[in-house]
Amino acid sequence: MTIALYPGSFDPATMGHLDIAVRAAAIFEKVVVGVYDAPAKNVLFSTDERVELFSRSLEGVPNVEVLSFSGLTVDYAKSINAKVLVRGLRAISDFELEMQMALLNRKMSPGLEVVCFMTSIEYSFLSSSIVKEIASLGGCISGMVPNNVAQALEEKYRKLKDTASIPRYLTS
Ligand code: PNS
Q1: Residue 167 is inside which H or E element, if any?
Q2: Cα separation values, 83 from 18, 61, 122, Å
Q3: Active-site residue, 107 included
Q4: How distant, in Å, are the alpha carbons of 6, 39, 100, 108, 112 from that of 129?
Q5: Active site residue 168
Q6: Is the CB of 72 under 6 A from ligand 1?
Q7: Is the pTM higher than 0.70?
Q8: Which of 38, 43, 56, 166 is the most buried (most CB within 10 A)?
Q9: d(Cα 29, Cα 4) in Å, to the nearest integer?
Q10: Does 7 sit in the ligand 1 pocket, CB within 6 Å?
Q11: Residue nearest to atom 5 of ligand 1 (CA)
Q12: What's the N-to-C CA distance of the chain in angstroms?
């Protein structure tokens, strides 16, 4: 059985991520979506929340499992016996970083192949960060993220705004 690992930050998963996971699941017997627990960038959602949100969006796709991981992607791939790493490519601007990561991963783990899926055109302009920016400013994110993610974003920013409006001496 060919197991593919689709690693990422997924903070949160967008329709673009969902599309790649579903397309990978049509090719590989099993796809593990690996939610990296410590991305360099500041995350809005906790690791558990990111796992839960992507899992919910993927309900009904039987051969995909969403799990969190720590440490090197190559080590995690080895531990789950994944022979393939899946990544998505949106634009030429993604290519440089993906190429660097693919070559470094291959150096660390020569048997692991990297398969890049080209974005579906309707999702080519999406990124988790731009969706978060739009949501934080009250813009409409319908169609950019799965419905459960849209709800979670609205709730998260509502809570953050409520907390920000409470005088600091009452929260510390
Ligand atoms: O969704 P992202 O942020 O583009 O995903 C990047 C990710 C999580 C795949 C990458 O940062 C990663 O593999 N992190 C795990 C630690 C690691 O293996 N670093 C070396 C990568 S060559």
Answers
A1: none
A2: 21, 20, 29
A3: no
A4: 19, 13, 21, 29, 29
A5: no
A6: yes
A7: yes
A8: 43
A9: 8
A10: yes
A11: 8
A12: 53
Residue 155 CB-density burial (10 A; 0-12 exposed, 13-18 middle, 19+ buried): exposed
Q: Which residues contact 116 (CB under 8 A, 6 or more apart)?
A: 86, 87, 88, 89, 98, 102
Q: Which of 9, 30, 50, 128 is catalytic?
A: 128
Annotation says 23 is catalytic: no
**Measuring from atom 19 of ligand 1, which residue has the nearest CA?**
72
Of all protein residues, the one whose alpha carbon is nearest to atom 20 of ligand 1 is 72
3-class secondary-structure state, position 73: helix
Could you read off the pLDDT tens digit of each residue along the chain, which spans 172 residues?
Answer: 999 999 999 999 999 999 999 999 999 999 999 999 999 989 999 999 999 999 999 999 999 999 999 999 999 999 999 999 999 999 888 999 999 999 999 999 999 999 999 999 999 999 999 999 999 999 999 999 999 999 999 999 999 988 877 666 665 5
128 assigned to active site: yes
Which 3 state secondary structure label does DSSP give 18?
Answer: helix
Q: Cα(150) to centroid of ligand 1, in Å?
A: 24
- Please name the residue whose Cα sits nearest to atom 13 of ligand 1: 73
